[in-house]
Amino acid sequence: MADEQDGPKIHIDSDWKAQAQAEKEKLAETASESDPDAAAAGPGQLPPANFETLVSSFVTQALFAMGAIPDPRTGQRVAHLDLARHNIDMLSVLEEKTKGNLTDEESNLLASTLYELRTRYVQISSSARGPA
Known about the structure:
- The structure is a single chain.
- The chain is mainly alpha-helical.
- It has one domain (2-129).
- It is built from 6 helices and no strands.
- Helix 4 (51-65) packs antiparallel against helix 5 (81-98) and helix 4 (51-65) runs parallel beside helix 6 (104-129).
- It starts with a helix and ends with a helix.
- The mean pLDDT is 81.
């Protein structure tokens, strides 16, 4: 019964973490290819101001709000599903408003990112509600 009082447990599998890290590395690689100065900037520098970084910012916020990324101050993973949904919705607005103005690569990045975030959101929100 003590477990029930602690609130819903969130299970984050290691495959999701590995996939998120791989996407982050791919975004960084793509950014450095498109902006050679960004690669030379080094750690502690701001990332390039481009579409991939914008998408990555929303992804990071959504993952943090879903508890996939621990709070840097406390080390705890806490789910704020309303905030996660808001960030996913913001990416949806971005997709809608930029339709026809993106490269194929940017469009694919946004579509696959939204799919992954929505899938993860449904999994987490379903487990938070518990069995029906």
